[in-house]
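Dear colleague,

Following up on Tuesday's group meeting, I ran the structure prediction for the two-component complex that the binding team flagged. I've pasted the input sequences exactly as they went in, so you can double-check that nothing got truncated or mislabelled along the way. The structure tokens for the whole assembly follow below. Feel free to forward this to whoever is handling the docking comparison.

Inputs:
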Amino acid sequence: MGTTMTGAKAMIRTLVGAGVTTCFANPGTSEMHFVAALDAEPGLRAVLGLFEGVATGAADGCARMTGVPAATLLHLGPGLGNGLANLHNARRAATPMVNIVGDHATGHERFDAPLQSDIATVARNVSPWIGRPAAPEELCRVTAEAVAAASAPPGQVATLILPADVSWSDGATPAPPLPDVTRTTVDDTVVDDVAAALRSGAPAALLLGGATLRRHHLAAAAGIAGATRARVLATTFVARTERGAGIPAVEKLQYLGELAATQLDGLRHLVLVDAAHPASFFAYPGKPSDLVPAGCTVHVLAGPADDALDALARVADLVGGKTDVAALPDAPLPARPTGPLTGAALAAAVANVLPEGAVVSDESATNSLWMSAATVGCPSHDWLQLTGGAIGQGLPVAVGAAVASPDRPVFALEADGSAMYTIQSLWTMARESLDVTTVIMNNRSYAILNMELARTGAGEAGPQARDLLDLSRPDIDFVRLAEGMGVPAVAAHTAEEAIEALERAAAEPGPHLIDAILQR
Amino acid sequence: MGTTMTGAKAMIRTLVGAGVTTCFANPGTSEMHFVAALDAEPGLRAVLGLFEGVATGAADGCARMTGVPAATLLHLGPGLGNGLANLHNARRAATPMVNIVGDHATGHERFDAPLQSDIATVARNVSPWIGRPAAPEELCRVTAEAVAAASAPPGQVATLILPADVSWSDGATPAPPLPDVTRTTVDDTVVDDVAAALRSGAPAALLLGGATLRRHHLAAAAGIAGATRARVLATTFVARTERGAGIPAVEKLQYLGELAATQLDGLRHLVLVDAAHPASFFAYPGKPSDLVPAGCTVHVLAGPADDALDALARVADLVGGKTDVAALPDAPLPARPTGPLTGAALAAAVANVLPEGAVVSDESATNSLWMSAATVGCPSHDWLQLTGGAIGQGLPVAVGAAVASPDRPVFALEADGSAMYTIQSLWTMARESLDVTTVIMNNRSYAILNMELARTGAGEAGPQARDLLDLSRPDIDFVRLAEGMGVPAVAAHTAEEAIEALERAAAEPGPHLIDAILQR
């Protein structure tokens, strides 16, 4: 009965009604009606990226900060392809996202026009939920289902394939949002089992992952640790970690399997809290992929869709654990660095500048260890990591985090090699005047691959092999790249220059880039 | 019996033995043994791209020029995703390519490590042939099959998924190449039918596509046209066209369906020669997708795997067609342009500079009409086009063409919006000292989308919509971008500056970029 309108308008109204208010877009012809409808439905803010990997990564970063789905707008199968790597990362981050992929009009498919491809097949890899409304009459129901699927714990990418004629035709009616799905309460038997294991006195650890690296979860885990001497560990790569002053620090499992195995050595109980069974990131000749030591029992306290905070609180109650976060000792800040700009000096510089409430997008690769260690005593902040191993996420996530949190300064700590995958992000930072300080860790190499080449036992690298891991010849001048996209930039060659540049960037609103030329 | 070696070494030896001598790579940890083996097997040249879309597009450009498969080396599913758009274009170009995607070791999959994904599912969309050897003993057989599948007419992307342990383990033996597959000879009945239709006197046209826009095919088609008054048309987007002085010119079907329909209006016979049934690129409300007029009979003279040159020659024999290419009139060159730098002036500038034997990678979007019209009378050259509609192909294809043809000057005619998808290509041009002159057609907008917004009938664009099609705020400074990646660059604001910059770039070897600031 109600008034009908074009699919595009009704879809946008449905999205906004369900709380989806930001869309990171790189549209083409098949999305033109959606684009044209934006002005009639101003509740949805559209942010342009010059490459789809920027749009998908930014939607990930945005939703990590808001907790509600962000949308994308991509152009057919190739647009989805360009966005796929950061959708992979979003899948691993369990980020709620409505991934809108425009398609040819339904009657046009049979001509196999140049841009025709099988969008659903590509999307399946990153998006458990896929919808493709065939008519404007069903578009808004499917849209509401997409938002609900994206939002249901733990969160996921939901892909809605939007044929151009479904978008442009009249006959659609906005749909109300579907009811929220809440997290599952963990059974008493599970809680009891974990509490008993932790009280047994045998060496034990909690391993926190997923959405549990937050202030309250960490406090509950710290209480359990205080009462039982269980250790608290965290998975290596986490979508969002609350850390800094007033928040219990947590020991991360190391990226290198050998080191992670040492951390887990001797454990008799490992309690997974929204965390996967620990395995090495890659396999290596003659090394085990499974990192859990023999004789260690693995308990699952909470899975990804469970209410892990409630489960942790109940375990804490059973073991008599409490944490007074106000009494936590302040972790020390590193001294103000001077001299050569090493990875450690740069990390100390960042730690000396990072303000209360900052959001850090960390894709610093080989320098991440320095960065996370140096900043643990900073004022409280959020730390966003690369979750799926597909590099090129850090700058887009910073874009999205800044769009989501305009009142919080964002720092993108970015390895040079990784930065080049989605360097177009800088343009969106400039266009939207985002308060992002990008620090390029410029070591002129895929340094992590030099390390991996040795670790894989592939033997001594010859000139061809070394060439493929080397980013010099020519050196990349990130100052010029940034300026070319409208972002003020400066190079830093010493710790003093780095500190000065960071302080200036922090003092001025809007985007900045610091090309930190690291000593090799 | 024979000596065995690691999978990586034997695979490279197999590739080289089958004629695959260039690999465009963006490797990660799972590809380290392949990388390390390159120095032992120097027949395979590895060229680094800083983004996978550069690698896949360059492999496409390389193979378009050599006619034999080029290889890629990509890092798991996300690497494939980043390369997918240009693999889509390569699929549409029927380019022979061996797309090597490294994967986790076979035993590592069950841990669902962060980079785990379903590679084959993603590849299926662009690669009809997919192989995944499970052991080094079968790797080289599968590799030889991949090369054969890629090479079989008309050419295709063949994806070989290479588990890390299959690459690093001993036990592989190089395999010899499989026999070549030749093109199919078209039946006499088909040739006779086409000849009869063309001799009927009813309005007729040949529509050439695929691999038939070459010197000899065009000469045969021109002979047929001379004898029968049939017109010779070409599909809008062609992987490689030989054109210029001494080569019969051909009328292209226009991108805009309305114009293409006008070109086909009144035809009674349309003869497809390695060309798809003409359809509009996109669908539009109330407009037909099928461009063939009512009452026109469509004949298929040759499909993609057929010997179209032989078929054309046989039709020419039957209709008594001959072409004396030496007697072809010279198409005029445009006058040396002066004054404001419009699209037409820039095209005239390029036409005045384009040397004999040049290779043009054309992704000039809205300016492509000017460019192709202005250059038809230039010395003979090759023209490579965007075949699949996934923008971001022009610069990578120029990289690959320059690697394949080091003695030929390459010109990349590149729209500003399209350039930004794979701008990392400039770095590879600098690293490899490729003789590529990139001309950015900088109109500070997705100009084609402004046109499409109007054509789709989406209504008047409001501020949000206009913003999504606009590339100013900030303007992109391509000179800085190029210099940041080691490519000498200059901006041109007038026709005189454009000519001067083009002449200087043509005179100096190595890469150059000209940021042509077009009048709006």
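Chain B touches chain A through 105 residues (CB under 8 Å).

Cheers,
M.
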